[in-house]
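quick one: adenosine-5'-triphosphate bound model?
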Amino acid sequence: MIELIDLQKDYSNKTVLAVKQLEISSGCFVGLVGNNGAGKTTMLSLILDLIKSTSGKVLLKGNDVAKTENWKTYTGSYLGENFLIPFLTPVEYLSYIGTLHGKNKADLDLFLLEISGFFSNESMENKYIRDLSLGNKNKVGILAAIYTSPELLILDEPFANLDPGSQSWLKRKLTELNQNGVTVLMSSHDLKHVTDVCSRILLLDNGNIINDINVQKNVLVELESYFNVH
Ligand SMILES: Nc1ncnc2c1ncn2[C@@H]1O[C@H](COP(=O)(O)OP(=O)(O)OP(=O)(O)O)[C@@H](O)[C@H]1O
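yep, here:
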């Protein structure tokens, strides 16, 4: 589903990401972890063609993301606030994004019902996105990415700023989506969440993938040791 080939990103002659070869198969649930500045957002941004690589390429289903558009129809993503439209309410925003993906009013009503445990209808209709708290803005972005019924879902720190109940809801939702065949790639600083839901974890350090972990029992302990969590 995702291939990174000789992918490199430099800023002012400093390499912030360098991945010789990486393949992520369809149906995987992959977590991307690494310290601040390790290159997680850079990697996700390159996969989504939001920034240009210095060299190398990203293929989605064999197509170069920098040269084709088709992958956008099956890829849902949320990397941060600048994905949102601040002067719309959450419902208006979801409706707009849904229209781009062939959804109608009935689809939206059903979706709003499904996600009522995560984001109440009251917050969805009565405020502009610009006036929401950071956590609620993140929820809107994550929901919009999910609402497009993607085959591939890419999220940057989806648990950040969410209250504990919402984190738990999101973990269940992402697991369910993955069980239904959605390929998920997400970054996170929450090692517990990552080891709970992911089947594969990529550890980034200074722009390099230094560990590619098949998630098993003792992975949390191993990761906590790397991150000096006591
Ligand atoms: N536009 C830019 N100009 C210059 N340097 C940049 C730019 N964007 C990112 N960087 C640098 O690239 C490196 C990787 O940043 P990136 O945001 O990918 O890290 P990250 O792993 O997502 O970090 P965090 O966990 O703090 O979000 C950092 O050193 C950052 O300063």
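The helical segments are 40-47, 90-100, 105-114, 121-126, 134-147, 164-179, 191-197, 219-226.
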